[in-house]
Amino acid sequence: MELGASLDDLCSSDGGQAAAQAIVADADVVGVIGTSCSSAAIAAAPLVAAAGMVMISAGATSPALTSDLAGNPGPNRTPGFYRTVTNDVFQGAAMARFVHDELGLSTAAAIHDGDPFTRGLASAFEAEGGTVTRLSAINKEDSDMVPVLTEIAAGSPQALFLPIFQPAGDFVANQAPAVPGLEDTVLVGADSLLNLNFLSLPQSAGMYFTGPDRRFAANVNQSTGKTAADVVTDYAELYGQEPGSPFWAHAYDATTLLLEAIAAASRVDDGTLVIDRAAIREHLDGVENYRGLTGPIACDAFGDCGSNRIVVVRNIGGEANAPTSMDNIVFSYPAAADRQ
C-alpha cells in the first residue's frame, strides 16, 4: 500500500469535483481520505462512489451528506461516504443551547455561505425559545461585509452566528463591531473558524466557538496502539509544530479505519494483491465499537461514524494564547453527566 497524491479540494464544489476526477482516473486508488469541507464533499462523493471507492471525511460536517439524525437521508447522501467528524445537526443544537441557556441571549442572527447547517441552527435556536432575527447569505470571496451587517443590525440581534470559513470570517469579525447596532453583539463561530490562524487575529478575541471535544489525550487508537498524546508528539517532531486544526485526530481515525477496511478486503491471488472495493464498503458499514483517538466509533446506516461530543470554547485573545484558547472550554454538550 502506498499513499497517493494529496489534492487540494479548495473547500469548494469546483475544487472537490476536480480532485475527485483526478482520483478516479487512477485505477490504483481504492479509497479516499477527505474532503476537508462539505461543499467539496457534495461534489466529490458521487464521483468517488461511482468508481466503486469509499471516502472518509474528517471535516465535512453537513447533514446533507448523511442524515438529519432522525432516520431521514440527506439530499446529498451517497453510499460509500463516511465521516469521523460530528454531524452539524448536533453542533447546531450545542451552539443554540449555549447561546440561549448559558449566555441568556434570546435573539440571534446568522451569516452563511449557502450551507444548510445555518437553517438547522436557526431551528435549534428557536426550539430553545429564541428568536432568529435574520439569516443572511454571503459569498465566500466577499470582503466588504458592511452592507450585510447593516441589514442584520436592523434586527438588533444579541448574538451573531458565523458558521463560515476564512477569509470571510476574518472580515465579518473585523467589521461587525463598527456597525451601529452590533457594537455589543456576541459573535459565535463554528468549527470552520476554530483554528490557530483565526484565533491569533485580534478581531477574534472574546469570540465563542463550537468544535469537537478534544479531551482525548489518553485515548488509544486500536489499530496503531498510539495515544492522542503520542500522535501530537510525533506530529510536532515531523512538522515543528502541533496540529492547528481541531480535526487532526478525526483524520487519524479516518485513515486507520480505511486501512483496516482495505486489509479486511484484501487477498493474495497467485502472488497478486487483490483488493475487493465492494468489501471495503461492507467492512465500513459494519464498524462498531472501534476504539479511535476520538473515542468509540460506530458507523450508522448513513455514514455518520463520529462521536457526538461538542464543546464551546472562548478565545482568550492574542497569538501567544491561541493554542490555549483551542481548549478553553466553557460549555460541553451533552453535559458530562448525560454522556453514555
Name the helix and strand elements from N-terminus to C-terminus, one letter apiece.
HEHEEHEHEHEHEHEHHEEHEEEHE
What does the largest sheet look like?
7 strands, mixed
Total of domains: 2
Named CATH architecture of the largest domain: 3-Layer(aba) Sandwich
Q: What is the level 1 CATH name of the largest domain? A: Alpha Beta
CATH homology group of the largest domain: Response regulator
Mean pLDDT: 92
Structural class: alpha/beta
**Poorly predicted segments:** none
Strand content: 15-25%
How far the N terminus sits from the C terminus, by CA atoms, comes to 37 Å
- Identify the overall geometry: globular
* CATH topology type of the largest domain: Rossmann fold
Helix amount, in percent?
Answer: 25-40%
- Tally the helices: what do you get? 11
Total strand count, please?
Answer: 14
